[in-house]
Each structure stands twice: as C-alpha cells, then as structure tokens.
Write a structure and sequence with these properties.
By secondary structure, this protein is α+β, with helices and mostly antiparallel strands. The protein is 20% helix and 34% strand.
Length: 360
Amino acid sequence: MMFRSLSLAFALLAATSATASAQSRDDMIAAPALRAHVTVSGDLVRIGDVIDNAGSAAQIAIYRAPDLGTTGTLPVDRVLAALRAHQVIGVVTRNLQEISITRLARTLESKDIEASIARALQHKNGLGDAANLSLTFDRDVQNLRLEASNTGAMQAVATRFDPRSNRYDVTFEIANESTAAPTKLRFTGTAIETVEAAVLARGVERNEVIKSSDVVVERRPKAEVGNDLAARDRAVGMQARKQLRVGQALKTADLARPDLVQKDQAVVLIYQAVGLHLTIRGKALEGGTEGDVVSVMNLQSKRIVTGVVIGRGQVSITGPAQQPSRAPEVSDATSSIQSSQAATLVAIANAASTVSPKAE
C-alpha cells in the first residue's frame, strides 16, 4: 500500500516537472524580439510592426510612419524606451543598433496619368485619338504616390472639354481596399489635337526642288495647319510653287511635280510619225513638267511649235496616229529615215501651229 502511494507521488512529481519544463520552453519561444526591417502600409507604426510576439500590445501605435514610399531608421534604444512605456519589457534586441521602417505606397507615374487623361478625352467634342492629343496642366503633374491600399484602376467618372477654349476637367476614382470611399483625383488644363507635319528645315525659293535634308517631321496643332498637309515622302523631290519659309508646314497646294523643262533651256524636239523618227535642237519658251504642253522654238526653222514634255529636256511633237515616246538626247539633228523622208517630216514640223509664248 505504501509502495503504491510512493509510486503515485513520483508520477505526479514527474508530470509537474514536465509541465514546468514545457512552460519554460514556451516562455522562451514567446519572448518579444526586435525586427531589423519593418514595412507598414498606413501612417502609423505599431508595436506589432517592430517586434515579434507582441501579444495583446500589437495594435498600440508608437510612431508616425515615414512619408509614402520612403524609408526611415530608428535607434534601438529609442524603440526600447517606447516599448517600456507600454510595459513591453524583456525584448530581445538581436544586437541591432537601429531598425529601418518602410512605408508602402502605390506610385502613379506622370506619363501614365497623362495617358489616362488623353484616353478619357479622346473623341470628346470633336477631339481625335488619344495618341494625337497634347496636354498641358494647370499644376505641374509629378509622379503621384498613394496609400498602398489604393489598388483599383483609374476610372474616369467626370469628363468635360470645351472646344472653344480647349479646356478640360477630368476626375478619376480609384478603389480603396481599406475604406468604402474610393480615392478621387482631379486634373484640369488644356488639350490640343496635333498631327504629324512635314516642316521645312530651311527656306526654299520658288521652283526649287525640295531635298530630303530640307524636311523634318514635327507635331503641329491640327487647327493651325489644316487638312491639306503633305506627307514627308510626298514632299521630297517636289518643286515649290512659291517661296516657302523655314519652319513652314508643307501643304499639297505648295508643291508641284518638278519641271523637266525650264524656260530658255535647250531641249530636244522629237518629231514622230508612223515609221518615222527625227530629233532636232530647240529652245523652250516656257517650263513644264511631264505631260505639260509647252511652246518651243525650232532652232533650225526658227518657228515656234507646241509639244508635250516627255522627259528631262525632251519635248515630243507627234505625227498622225503616233504616241509620244522618250528618246535619248543628241547634239545635232539625227534621223532614222532617208533624207527625202526627213525633209518631209521637217516640213511637217515647220508647218505646225505657231503660238506665242505664255506671259510670265
């Protein structure tokens, strides 16, 4: 009987010792310990942010958080003093000298804000595509930082545009995870539709041919340049109808195909008829491009005839049922026919209708 009592006592003692040992291990595991790096998503730093195992004191605020998207540091002795003020003691410092605190944020870049405004304004009251809109802001728009809880997309909820003044007023809402009310952002300024224009890099004289180096591409307000713009590829190689100034946006009406024949230029007159071909020197009395009808003096007969410009320095006078064709330049009159045939053809040329030169 006595042996049984002693066995029970020893069992109880062993159980008590085991429980005390387990509690001791739990107390060691639960000891509060400093964190070297802390991140917060709000404007307050709480005890539970800076230490592990904060227990019931976790929600107590002890510091203001850094600015949105920035990181600050705190000396460990100041942190311990703040914890002791709330009866949090026995904190394991892990030999830290300071801790860093980062405040999370959502960053809206200025280029993304501008793109969102342009999309909200496109096709509004006569405006064109978003990609063609040039925006200015009443207040300079930098990268914008919001609380990290603002996770929603920028939704335009109010958009106004006055085409007379080019003024816009756009309000966005961004859904917020932590509150029922969305964050609102409002932007005001001006919006102008622009187009790509071929612009002269130097002044060009009348009848001068425009080279590739003379033209650059710039965006210009659509209302300023109108709808008759010439594309860069269309402008290069064309001839200016009038004097054009540097910086001027080129229009289709400003350009013409380059003259292949200049006034007072020595040209080749090409007389053709069925089976006959004759070339003679002439002098252009007016300029013209391919397909233009111009007046030319036959230097052999001194008569003025009309013909069609068919190439650079070449004018064709056709005989019956024969279409103009290009021929190489020659220094003197040449013929692929017998002398009698040539004489006949020259007579035809000499008998061509006489015209007076066009007035300048």
